[in-house]
Amino acid sequence: MQDSAFVHNAFSRIAKRYVLTNHVLSLGIDVLWRKRVAAIVKSYQPALVLDMATGSGDLAESVARACPEARVVGADFCLPMLEEAKQRGRTDLVVADGTDMPFKDDSFDAMTVGFGLRNMATWPGALTEMARVVRPGGPVVVLDFSLPRAPLAAPYRFYLHHVLPRVAGLITGERDAYQYLSGSIERFPSGEAMLDLFRDCGLENCRCEPVSWGIASIYVGEVAG
Q1: Which pTM does this prediction carry?
Q2: Domains (range + CATH), the chain
Q3: How many CA atoms lie within 13 A of 14 on its CB side?
Q4: Residue 217 φ/ψ, nearest 5 degrees
């Protein structure tokens, strides 16, 4: 179980510098990751997409650009983050918790989650809820950090625990929020463990696509019919 109160407070504090910090820490590669997610979503030709844990709306914007005919709804349980998304041009926004969404069954054609599932109070509860609100055959696409294998594993862990919190602390003034981030990445299931979790929560045809040598991974599962 993740501490949802801590997560809410942390993201509220870093909201105004969240986008800048992400780009600096990833050297801008996160933009390419989101474009790849958007391309996967586009292949399903959705009419209505939910971007859960939308934060500042970066992934929702990428999906909207790739799928200009689709309506893309952004949802997040942190209002200050949604205010940032609104300032960046996103208008279809909803305050919602990923583990208890205010949407009917089968409401959406597709769902995306960028760097948000890891922070939700219960991963199985969130994935089950996601499967509930997406129609049968529709994709749930999760983008999140993962741990690369050797020879990158050791230097990446050094960066994760020693460099990242310091740099992010200088940018945001909230070093503790990024110390939490480092620990949460270590605890988060990746690879086959995440695919097993997908299957347990009602998703099928599950696959994993590591990006940037496994620093992040894209997971895709389709809602069972």
Answers
A1: 0.90
A2: 4-146+189-223 (3.40.50.150)
A3: 25
A4: -140, 150
